[in-house]
Amino acid sequence: MSGDRDEMKAFRELQAHLAPRWALADGDGPEPRDIVVVPSLSFDGIDSVAIDGVIHYEERMLFTLNLLRHPQTRLVYVSSAPIHPAAIDYMLSLIRGIPTEQLRQRLTVLSLYDSSFVPLSKKILERPRVIERIRNSIRPEYGLMTCFTVSELERTLAVALGVPLYGVDPDLAWLGTKTGSRWAFREAGIPLLPGAENLRGQTDLIEAIDNLWFDDVQLERVVVKQNTGFSGQGNAILDLGPLRAVAPGSGAGREPRERALADALSTMRFVDPLLSWESFLEKIEREGGVIEAFVEDKAKRAPSCQLRISPEGSLDILSTHDQLVEGVDGQIYAGCRFPADEAYRMDIQRDALRVAEILQKKGVVGRLAIDFICVQSDDGPWKHYAIETNLRLGGTTHPMMLLRMLTDGRYDPDAGLYLTPGGEPQFYVATDSLRSDSYRSLLIEDLLDIAAANDLHYQADAESGVIFHFTGTLSEFGKLGITAVGKSPAEADWWFEQTRQVLDRETKSELCTSKS
Fold this sequence. Notes:
The chain has 16 helices and 20 strands. The protein has 516 residues and is α+β, with helices and mostly antiparallel strands. The radius of gyration is 23 Å and the shape is globular. The chain has four domains: 2-166, 3-Layer(aba) Sandwich (Rossmann fold), CATH 3.40.50; 168-191 and 295-411, 2-Layer Sandwich (D-amino Acid Aminotransferase, Chain A, domain 1), CATH 3.30.470.20; 194-293, no CATH class; 424-516, 2-Layer Sandwich (Alpha-Beta Plaits), CATH 3.30.70.
C-alpha cells in the first residue's frame, strides 16, 4: 500500500509539469523537447482477441515521428516486435522539408523482440535495463510519454521513466467504459440507444433485457457489451426471435420469459469467435457491461467524432468520420471515410462536444472519440444515437495524423472539412485491413516498389495519392493499411480501388508464375 501511495505522489508531481511540456512538444520555440512513444495495447483480454497481427497495431502511432520536424526534438519509439527499417524510413520521408538522415539522428527505435500477447508497457516494466536505456536516450527534465491507451501500467511506467504522461489519468478510465459512456451521454443530455448499464452478471443481464423488451415488444435483437471490449471484440448479439412464445404480451409470465432468456444467453453470437459464454460472462461479472437495443436498419451509419482535451485546458474538434464496419452484424471496425456525411456531420460534432465538456470537467486530458449510430427517418432527416466513448487513440486517429504529416493542413470545425494550406479540401478512405492471401508474397520493399512503379504514392503537387501503414502484417497475414487521399470523395475512392487492383494484379500474376 505504501508503494502505491509513493507512486501516486510521484505521478502527481510529474503531471504538474505536463501542460508546459505538452505545449512545447508540438510548438515552435527553441527549447528542447523529448517524447517517449509507448503504443501499448493495454486492454484486458488483448491476449485472446481474434485479430490477425494485433501486436502490429503498435505501428499505428508512427505518425508521432512527425514531431521530429522540430530540430530540438528527440523521440524514442518502443515496440514489442521489430518494425522494419523500410517502414521507418518511409514514415520519415513523409515529413516535408527535412532530410531523412537528419531526422534519424534524433530518433531511437527500440524493439523488445517479444511478440507475446502481453501489453507493451508490462513488458518494459519487466525489463529494468530497457527502462534505463530509454532514460539514457532522452533528457527526462524535458520529456513526456504518450501512449495508445492508458492504464495503471502506463502510470507506473511514467514514474519509472521520470516523465509526465499525456493521456487520461487511469483513475478516470471508467469514463471510457461502456457504462461510463452511457453515464456521460445522459449528463450531456444527448440521445443514446435504449438500454441499461452497470450490469454485473447473468441475473442483471436477464432483468435488463426483459425490461428493454417490455418497453419495446417489437424488439428483435439486443447487443450485450463488455465494459472494456476492444474493436467490437467484447460484443455479442442476442436474437429474440426464437423466444417469441414468451415475449411480453404473449400471455407468458415473467418467470418463464426469464428462464428462456437464461437459456438463450449461452447461444449468443460472439463477435470474437474465440469467446465462449463462460469466458464472456466471467468478464461481465468482473468488469461489468451494458445492453443496447440493436438497430435493425440496414442503411444505418456508424460515424465518429474525434476531439482533444489539452493539458492547458483547450477543447478541440479534430475530425469526423464514417466508420466502415464488418463481421458479425457489423460490429468490427474495418476502416473509415473522411469526413462524415454532411447530412449529420455538424450534429454529431455538436453532441460530441457536449460529452467532451462533461469529461473535461471530470479532469480528462488527451485524445478521445465519440461513436454514434445514425439512421435516416422516413421523411428524410437523420437521427443519431451516441453509443461509445474511447478515451484513447483509435483507428481513425492515424489516417488524419498522416495527412497532417504530409500537408501541414488543418481541420476546419465550422465546415467539417480538412483544408490544405492553400485552402483546398481533402478527403480520404482508410483501412487497416486491405488483405488477400496473395499479398503474403510481398515484403515492404516490394510494396513500395510496386507503388512507385504504378504512381500510387501520395504526390504533393497533385494533393492526392496513397499513404501506406500497418505494414508489419503484410508478409505474415497478407494484410496492410492504406489511406487513399483525393480532392473529392470520388477521387479518394478511385485511389483506394486502384491500389487494390494493382496489388491484386501484381501478386496474383506472381502466384501463377510460381505455380507454373
